[in-house]
Predict the 3D structure of the following.
Amino acid sequence: MNFQQLRSIRETVRRGYNLTDVAQVLHTSQPGVSRQIRELEQELGVDFFIRNGKRLTGLTPPGAELLPIVERLLQESDNLRQAVLDFSQRQEGQLSIAATHSQARYALPHVVRDFRALFPKVTLHLHQGSPKQVAAMLISGEADIGVATEALADYQQLVTLPCYRWTHSIVVPKGHALLQELRDSGQPLSLAQLARYPIITYELGYTGRSHIDQAFRSAGQQPDVVLTAMDADVIKTYVELGMGVGIVASIALDDKQEALEYIDAGHLFQVNVTRLGLRKGAWLRNYAYEFIQTFVPTLKPEVVRQALQEANSGDGADGEDALENALAI
């Protein structure tokens, strides 16, 4: 048994049983991949894959049982390499961060700048995607650290740590009728008022959109959502064109956009919590812990290590609740 055989098994599943794609990822040939799989199957005495002629179409029952073991072996191999690098190259290496657009655009720039000043020899890779894509990058090992609002806590393979709370705001063009309506009434904005205007906001699954929909449903209101986008910059662009009233994350407010005005909506929608995600069982370089603390000062290395240990031992849910309370998140 060797690691190339194990990688062939893992990548075959990840690439949907397309051996041509597997060969490209592993920098080998398709016959070479087939040989590696066959040799491991013969050594272990079980077939990992269901075959239709020469094509692989799925996992056999033994293959499905053994795949998590293959994943763990390869993860521990990666951990060993990372641990060795920590001793030999403590101040240099690579760090991959996966984040949603809002986090990458508004929450992380100063963090990245400050981290680079501390670790100039560490190359940062910043990947952007939906919360589900962020989770997938963490699980696959493509990313070391993930930052998102929704979905991360739904994956058993991840441990998530609370970072900070935030709310939504309403964005309108200057002179918009809603502004005059609020001035005349002297009352806070209501969901009924908001529902009378075309709405531009985030796509489903992004930046607290589920809390927006839930609030309207609970109030018995049916908003007219005319346009959705992945990020606040696009939403604000179309608001400025007069296409509707925008609902954006408050972290995306920008005083430089003089054509727009903002209305606090913290009382209308549930508070959101940005979370930092890590893959259970993964080894983090020392500078990864420093990046996390630069982003969230209360997430000191010892706090993060304890959370990872509790998650790996099966106490992750209780540990996360305690951490959330301790950090006043």
Q: What stands out?
A: The chain has a mean pLDDT of 88. The first strand starts at residue 49 and ends at 52.
